[in-house]
Write a structure and sequence with these properties.
The chain is mainly alpha-helical and 170 residues long. The protein is built from eight helices and no strands. Helices cover 78% and strands 0% of the residues. The chain is globular, with a radius of gyration of 17 Å.
């Protein structure tokens, strides 16, 4: 594969799947600066993975898997350096307060998703994007029945947390 072909495929994949990638980025990175870093990291991994794509799965499944794996690794690296960046995070939070808020329900959902562990966070994103249990199991390396159990628990957690926020739920 030539670099030109790789660039063409990358541009096509980016155009088709950037929405999925943004969802993963938003679920795993809280601040705008972190989201930019994670998005860039995922884009690099996607570009490098193009020659290895054997068309054994759908492109969206392939890209999603790369995004999730990259995000999980990125979270691990970020946690190592979190204490050294505390002062910068405080400044970033002050800067973000001036921004116009997005839909409160969507922001709440992303905040709750961000609180989950990596696997539950991934399952939630995949569920919201309409992947089947079988596809989720293949991407995450767990059984379909385990996916079902985890989805049931995630739904119960989200319902309970929404009732704490609003007695009638969201």
């Amino acid at each position: 594969m030539t670099e030109s072909e790789q660039n063409n495929i990358f541009g096509k994949w980016l155009q088709q799947h950037k929405g999925q990638i943004f969802k993963v980025v938003r679920a795993y990175a809280a601040t705008t600066m972190d989201q930019d870093d994670l998005f860039q990291e995922i884009m690099i991994q996607v570009w490098h993975s193009i020659p290895a794509f054997r068309k054994e799965s759908l492109v969206n499944t392939w890209v999603y898997r790369i995004a999730l794996n990259t995000a999980i690794k990125w979270v691990g690296k970020e946690q190592k350096y979190a204490k050294s960046r505390e002062s910068l995070d405080t400044v970033q939070a002050v800067l973000q307060e001036a921004k116009v808020p997005l839909d409160e329900r969507l922001s709440w959902l992303y905040e709750e998703i961000h609180k989950f562990d990596e696997i539950d966070r991934s399952i939630t994103l995949l569920l919201l994007d309409g992947f089947s249990y079988k596809e989720m199991a293949a991407m995450l390396g767990i059984t379909e029945s385990n996916v079902g159990v985890k989805i049931n628990r995630i739904k119960k957690q989200l319902i309970a947390r929404s009732k704490q926020l609003n007695p009638y739920g969201i």
